[in-house]
Design brief:
With 131 residues, the chain is mainly alpha-helical. It has a domain of 72 residues: Orthogonal Bundle (Arc Repressor Mutant, subunit A). 47% of the residues lie in helices and 11% in strands. It has a 3-stranded antiparallel β-sheet with strand order 1-3-2. The chain starts with a helix and ends in a 14-residue tail after the last helix.
């Protein structure tokens, strides 16, 4: 299964979710036990756990009436492998496309953008600009 890095990084971006992962590091806990560590409601913790479960960062196991959660670090390992090329030193960068010759007129889009930002002052200009 291919990892959805946007969802993974989104899940890891939340401080509370990272704290839940810290709690689960090396142990298995129930949702009630996890919720005891936070000042938010149990349903809020359940929503965080659902996001972590959907991204593959935690596993859920049902034992009787209780649900136990455990950390699954494999998606983090996949993300680290995915990011390694960005960390490599001395990696050859792809060549940039050649610049257009200096005699060519600017593109229509850049000319329009320039004229919109450089409005000549008018007699009615009282210093307030609403664009």
């Amino acid at each position: 299964m291919a990892t959805d890095y946007s969802a993974l990084f989104g899940a890891l971006a939340d401080t509370r979710r990272r704290a839940i992962l810290d709690l689960l590091n090396g142990r298995t806990l129930t949702v009630n036990r996890i919720a005891e560590e936070f000042s938010v409601s149990r349903p809020a913790i359940s929503r965080h756990l659902r996001v972590l479960r959907e991204t593959g960062l935690v596993r859920e196991e049902k034992r009787g009436r209780e649900r136990f959660y455990a950390l699954d670090p494999s998606p983090i390992g996949e993300a680290v492998e995915h990011l390694k090329p960005y960390l490599a030193r001395g990696r050859k960068r792809p060549a940039l496309p050649p610049r257009p010759p200096t005699g060519e007129p600017p593109s229509r889009r850049s000319a329009t953008r320039r004229s919109a930002t450089r409005r000549p002052p008018s007699d009615a200009d009282d210093g307030w600009r609403c664009w």
